[in-house]
Amino acid sequence: MIFSKTLLRRHTVLPGFDLALGLTLTYLCLIVLIPLSATFLRSTELTWDQFMEVVTSPRVVASYKLTFGASLLAAVINGVFGLLVAWVLVRYDFFGRRIVDALVDLPFALPTAVAGITLTGLYSANGWIGQYLEPLGLKVSFTPIGVFVAMTFIGLPFVVRTVQPVLEDMASELEEAAATLGASRWQSFTKVILPIVMPALLTGFALAFARALGEYGSIIFIAGNMPMVSEITPLLIITKLEQYDYAGATSIAVVMLVMSFIMLLAINGLQAWTRKRQGK
Q: Same structural domain for residues 109 and 235?
């Protein structure tokens, strides 16, 4: 036992556990913990009554509902169609497959302002898509639907790129074995495929949800930013910063941080439970 521990220390790539852990914690403190702590400390400049007045005002509450509701719905949609896109890219070989695969990463590379302007042009009343939706009574630009569309656009790659490697590693013989045992396609999907990809799918869902919560650039162009209608919480934070109301901005940011942390913690707990059921 002593020899194996000595051998492990001798051949390790990192310069010792203590030093590596120290560097990791120092980096996390500088990049994550100190900025977040400063946000919490700045919000303490307000009294509790003032804090509650800021974070529970009708305009702010309406932005919470839109931001979290649209982010959650966009993440769910991306979870379903992201799995479908990843499945098609992995299981089928067709003309233009490499182009489609590259297009998935477009929201990563596209500047958010460009994405917002493009989506607004497409879904406006005289846009390529909006001109056909408007006569049907479906207005996208400058409505909460536009917020949802923008969040869905920027979140799709997170699901596809998280699920795709798992599908590539999964042998197609598993599906064939299920079929030979009499399982239908739906049973093969729910009993064989879905349990294997579920942890990765939940990870992609969490990443897409978190990305949508913090999105700003692509949304403000298509949302219209009408108070109580299509105004997202990050825009309210920016507005208060422009008004030099730093305590009010950080108070809203603190609520966003706490709510986001709770929801992501729940998703991670569900992911851990799924892995435990699979015996991993």
A: yes
Structure tokens at 193: 């495929």
Residues 249 and 182 placed together within one structural domain of the fold: yes
Burial class of residue 37 in the structure, from the number of CB atoms within 10 Å of its CB (0-12 exposed, 13-18 middle, 19+ buried):
exposed
How many other C-beta atoms lie within 10 A of the C-beta of residue 47?
9
Q: For the chain, what is the domain count? A: 2
Rounded to the nearest 5 percent, the helix, strand and coil shares of the chain are 80, 0, 20
pLDDT of residue 2: 47
Look up residue 114 and give its amino acid: V
Structural domain range at position 13: 1-43
The answer to whether the beta carbons of residues 252 and 240 sit under 8 Å apart is yes
CB burial of 53-89 (b: ≥16 within 10 Å; e: otherwise) equals ebbeeeebebbbebbbebbbbbbebbbeebbebbbeb
Query: Are 72 and 189 in the same domain?
Result: yes
CATH number, domain with residue 173: 1.10.3720.10
Mean pLDDT by 10 residues, the chain (280 residues): 49 65 84 82 87 92 94 95 93 88 89 89 88 88 92 93 89 73 77 85 91 89 89 92 90 90 83 70
Give yes or no: residues 38 and 160 share one domain: no
The CA radius of gyration of the chain, in Å to the nearest whole number, is 23
